[in-house]
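Re: the pair you flagged

First of the two:
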Amino acid sequence: MSQEQWNAVDRYFTDQLAPADEALSAALAASDAAGLPAINVAPNQGKLLHLLARIQGARTVLEIGTLGGYSTIWLARALPADGKLISLEYDPAHAEVARANLAHAGLDKIAEVRTGAALETLPVLAAEDEGPFDLVFIDADKRNNPHYVEWALKLTRPGSVIIVDNVVRNGAVTDADSTDASVQGTRRVIELMAEHPRLSATAVQTVGFKGYDGFALARVLA
């Protein structure tokens, strides 16, 4: 199968099951106008995040890696009116775009974007007694994924869900000798999920608009 065919299937599923609306389209347009990289989740993947949060009955969500807030909108829309989402973004310019997109979507009272390196802002969340979060979505620099999952475990509860995006790396995840820090970080996080006594996890390969990739999904145990 070709990338063209993958895209056609994704387009069909998106048109049928996850059609764009004004706020989502505006978020993508604003991100593009601001020069943000086009690495946001695909629309059908955003809908999957939304459904997972709804199935989980999530009231609180932590997102590590905001970009322009496209996935943030999908997740925040799954929360009740008194729910809370905190998203961590390293780049101040990206965070500014995301905040504007969330405000345009009417979600700025539910979703908060904090700026700074996540490994510095995560301890602040813990010190502020934020959480426990019902769902954590990790989509940031891949070399630090093991650290992000360790922090997610500190900020969740038994029954919480942790999702780690981009774990296939176009198939490079199987290369133990890779010199790519993102591949090695991904391998370490998969090994951590496999071995950690408080996690039950799996990973799924995907194809589509975003090429060949996948995500890992874990449930926090008692």
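Second of the two:
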Amino acid sequence: MSLFGDGLEAAVQKAFTRPAPKNAGPQMRYLVKQLKGTKAVAELLGVSQRQVERYVAGKARKPRPDLASRLEREVKKRWQPQIRARARERAASTDGIVIDTRARMGYTAPIGSTDQDRIRHLTVALPPQHAARLFEAQEAGASDRELKEITAEALREVYFQDGGRRAGSLEEVRFTDVEHLEFEL
């Protein structure tokens, strides 16, 4: 995925009520149950059907690092879909989302202002409409660049322009380098 996409996904995963399986055997069994067969899991993970069967039976235990990361990613992507949907819906309708970032940001503003990029550490509560835009874009398969632009627009409106209460016409906020990014529902 991406920095912004992974950050949104991590925020949603904090809402899980039970931890996802950690070992390869339980993870494979979960995927086999979800995808209704070992063949579909094998195709998804890029391994043989026989290898999936070995993990399900407990004969294979420790996958290669690349397979382990793919396996974990696919399990987490499917884990607790109703709770995931409820957390996203709550953030998009009532609660909003909090972004905590340490990034080099600049902005385009009227002549005479200092629009030099500089490192800022911001913790900003974004209203539900911005959370909804982020989640809709993520579900539609938006790239990291698109998610970054949506986040920058939200920061421009909420933080830099204080919801329209600050004077001046700030045209754009841009991330040039992100050192830390965390979303919280």
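The beta strands are 97-108, 118-126, 172-184.

-B.
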